[in-house]
Structure formats: C-alpha cells, structure tokens
Specification:
199 residues; 2 domains; mainly alpha; elongated
C-alpha cells in the first residue's frame, strides 16, 4: 500500500473531498482554518506526532458533515442531523465564549456570596449548563471537552463538597485563599480552552 509523504495535505484533501457540497468560499475557509489550527498546534507542541495532531482534529468526514450541517447544506447519504421537522440542529451554534463564562463567572458569585442560597443555586445551574454547552460544542475535541468538564465542573464540585463536609470551620484567610486558587484554576482552564478552540 502506498503511503503519502505529506499526511497534512492528504488530510486537507480528504476534508475538501468530503465537503465538496459546501460553497467554494466556505470550503476554502474551512480548509484555511484547519491548516492554521494544525500549524499552531505543531508550533506549540513541536514534539507531537503529526498523526496525533490530525487525530485530535477528528475524522475528515465528521468535520465535513459538521460544516455542511452548520451551513444548512445537505448531502445524500449523510446522516440526518436536526429536529423532527428536518431543520438543522442548533448544535455548535453557541459562541465558544458562552460555556467558558458559564463555568467560570458563577464560581465568583458563589465564592463571594456564600450565605445567599439563591446565589449558590444559580451558580450551580449556570455551571451545569456551561458544562452541557461545552460537551455539545463543535469547537473542541472530545479529549478537550472531557478535560475541561473535569477541571472546571467536577473538580470544583468535589473540592467544595469536601470543604463543606469537613468538621472544622475554615478561617476567613483560608477560605479566601482556597477561593482564589480555585478561581485561578477555572480561569486558566477557560483560557486554555479558548486558545485550543476550533474556528
């Protein structure tokens, strides 16, 4: 079996083939975005194998199907995506900043209003919605989504539960330090997710 000397070109050619039903300008924009993402990833992680970088992007057929669904174009034989009326699903239509803000900002409200039950409840609801939006977004790979949810939603919830169930009441200084450390972790995770998002 003949192997190619340029797996990036082969990958982009496969995406272009699969996305042939897209308008030419949108298809070229998609290819340019993918090429830029590959270039940035390789610059950030020069030791990473090109195969793993391409695997993180996903299957060319899936990328093309997502682009076609978002543009409202359909292709024969492509899996149907959308509601019962045939309209394209709204998946991925949310701006990538929305889940990141919903996972980060409510923590500040909960941290600085610990004695207000409504603030705690709203913070929890917003963080759950943020995690769901992150998981259903097309802007990140599965590994990035899982990492983001674990660090920005699960870890804070576990840490807060342990903190609340501990028998000794923390001092104000310790509570402030813990809240600050948790916020830095959440903000860092949100910044990382923003940096690695797909266009």
């Amino acid at each position: 079996m003949k192997t190619s000397a340029d797996p990036i070109r082969d990958y982009l050619s496969a995406v272009e083939r699969e996305a042939s039903a897209l308008p030419a300008d949108r298809r070229q924009e998609l290819l340019a975005d993918l090429a830029e993402h590959i270039e940035v990833t390789r610059a950030e992680r020069p030791d990473a194998a090109i195969g793993s970088v391409l695997a993180e992007l996903g299957d060319p057929r899936a990328i093309a199907a997502t682009a076609l669904a978002e543009s409202g174009s359909g292709v024969a034989g492509a899996p149907a995506r959308g509601g019962a009326d045939g309209a394209p699903a709204g998946r991925g239509k949310v701006h990538p900043l929305a889940p990141l803000l919903m996972l980060t900002v409510p923590f500040l409200v909960a941290a600085f209003l610990p004695d207000v039950p409504a603030a705690q409840f709203c913070s929890t609801v917003f963080r759950v919605v943020g995690a769901v939006l992150l998981c259903t977004s097309v802007h990140w790979t599965t590994v990035q989504k899982t990492t983001g949810v674990l660090i920005a939603a699960v870890l804070p919830t576990v840490a807060i539960s342990i903190w609340i169930s501990s028998s000794t009441a923390p001092s104000d200084g310790a509570a402030l330090l813990a809240n600050l450390a948790m916020f830095v972790l959440l903000a860092g995770t949100a910044a990382w997710l923003w940096r690695v998002r797909r266009a």
